[in-house]
Design goal:
The chain is α/β, with parallel strands linked by helices. It contains 16 helices and 16 strands. α14 crosses α16. It binds ligand P71.
Length: 458
């Protein structure tokens, strides 16, 4: 089947509410057109993030009742340790409450001021943790990753030529490790091929630099390897994962994605010296460790993964067939609307992706997230002008096992309808911004003047 139906049935339901246009318009104004400030209760389909928003299985919920809350030696810790070792293969397993704490433990231990951490593309939390140590977070993904139209099967790959140049420029002593984010979230949830990982390993062997994975969406990455890479079609996801991680020295993991839990993460690595002194339990209860261990087993299930990746692809293909501009190829956890092409009449200075996010909510009760000028625009201190990022996107991240295909169809039909009257969407102007991480707190007003259509609607 092209789009597999749900490999589960629903045992518990959480009601969601349809709001009126009038109510959403009021909430949007009150929120200053910032969807982070709209109460989730007033969102119909919430695609803000796939992180921590998954539905747990009956087995995971049952596991919560088996939480061993002993201060030391909890059986759930042993279960998690055994699970992580069997999939990832690294010696030490250090639980954390989420991914960013694993990053913090790792980077505060090994990164010193003046160092450099190359990655395919850093997400904002790894970038912030590296920069917090006074080091440079360097993105070395293949250049095609920045072209929304370029269709490559493994668009998350590391650019090995640029990586080697960086090592020679910076010096291997100032690169304590290299990271690979699987799948590459900031580049659209694109996978990294086994071949690229193998070659990255071989290159780093020559310079004796460790390789670490940012493994949040590792199972989705392994599924793409099985589907797209020669020689992997008949291998199990577990075997693919084992091979993949065998090329690394450790990983950080936000289990809020492919751990299928609402909270949790870990750091896992071979280096005894680095592992020394890290605390265990990471601020989680025994029951959380149990849910995480069970989630890590479940996520390797191929029926689950083909439904999961298939559902994201289903949304993307419905939009693509209707001519809605999206980032290609469709990634593992999200569909990205190309706001520059969706709203060609709104200049980047008037925040087209944010305007699209606002319109999607006001008209249909759907919440996406802006990945564009609001999030990544930088002030040029010399001219006082904003430097706009190359890509202006709206991410529609799909929570795991949460929405039915019918709800996803609703999302697709809504966006296709919105696309038909896109010229009526107005740009926005900032009315408030904080000095850092402005996307969380920024406020806007709508520009009422009739927009100038620069390009004829197709
Ligand atoms: C996503 C998130 C969650 C998020 C985090 C910060 C700002 C906005 C949204 C989190 C990731 C991630 C990768 C590859 C590490 C983390 C941090 N992604 N690596 O995409 O995608 O994990 O949230 O558990 O600390 O919405 P954490």
């Amino acid at each position: 089947m092209k789009f597999p139906s749900e490999p589960f049935k629903i045992k518990v339901v959480e009601p969601i509410r349809r709001t009126t246009h009038e109510e959403r318009d009021r909430l949007l104004r009150e929120a200053g057109y910032n969807l982070f400030h709209v109460p989730a209760q007033s969102v119909y389909v919430d695609l803000l993030t796939d992180s921590g928003t998954s539905a747990m299985s009956d087995d995971q919920w049952a596991g919560l009742m088996l939480g061993d809350e002993s201060y030391a030696g909890s059986k759930n810790y042993y279960h998690l340790e055994e699970t992580v070792r069997s999939i990832f293969g690294y010696k030490h397993v250090i639980p954390t409450h989420q991914g960013r704490m694993a990053e913090n433990l790792l980077f505060s231990t090994i990164v010193k001021s003046g160092m450099c951490i190359p990655n395919n593309i850093h997400v904002d939390t790894t970038r912030a943790n590296v920069e917090h140590q006074g080091a440079q977070a360097l993105d070395v993904v293949i250049k095609e990753a920045y072209d929304p139209h370029c269709e490559l099967p493994f668009k998350g790959n590391m650019d090995l030529v640029r990586l080697e140049e960086a090592i020679n420029r910076v010096g291997r002593n100032r690169i304590p490790l290299v990271m690979l984010t699987i799948t590459n979230n900031s580049g659209g949830g694109q996978p990294v091929s086994m071949d690229n990982i193998r070659q990255t390993r071989a290159l780093l062997n020559r310079y004796r630099i460790p390789l670490f994975f940012d493994a949040c969406r590792f199972a989705e990455n392994c599924f793409f390897v099985k589907e797209r890479e020669l020689g992997y079609a008949s291998k199990s996801i577990l075997d693919i994962a084992r091979e993949l991680f065998s090329y690394g020295d450790g990983c950080i993991m936000s289990a809020k994605k492919d751990g299928l839990v609402n909270i949790g993460g870990f750091l896992s690595l071979n280096n005894d010296q680095w592992a020394q002194g890290f605390p265990t339990y990471g601020g989680l209860a025994g029951r959380d460790l149990e849910a995480m261990a069970r989630g890590l087993h479940e996520v390797l299930d191929e029926d689950y993964l083909s439904f999961r990746v298939g559902q994201v692809r289903y949304l993307g293909e419905l939009l693509d067939q209707a001519g809605v501009p999206i980032l290609k190829p469709i990634g593992g956890h999200a569909v990205y609307l190309n706001a520059k092409e969706f709203l060609p009449h709104i200049q980047q200075a008037q925040f087209p992706a944010q305007a699209l996010v606002a319109a999607l909510y006001r008209e249909y009760g759907i919440r996406g997230v802006e990945i564009g000028t609001v999030m990544f625009g930088k002030l040029d201190s010399a001219t006082g002008r904003t430097i706009h990022p190359e890509l202006e996107m709206v991410r529609l991240a799909i929570p795991r096992r949460v929405y039915t295909n019918m709800q996803i169809t609703y999302v697709a039909e809504s966006i296709i309808e919105l696309y038909r009257w896109r010229e009526r969407i107005h740009g926005l102007a900032l009315t408030y911004e904080a000095p850092v991480l402005r996307h969380f707190t920024a406020r806007f007003k709508e520009l009422e003047e009739k927009p100038l259509v620069q390009q004829a609607a197709s």
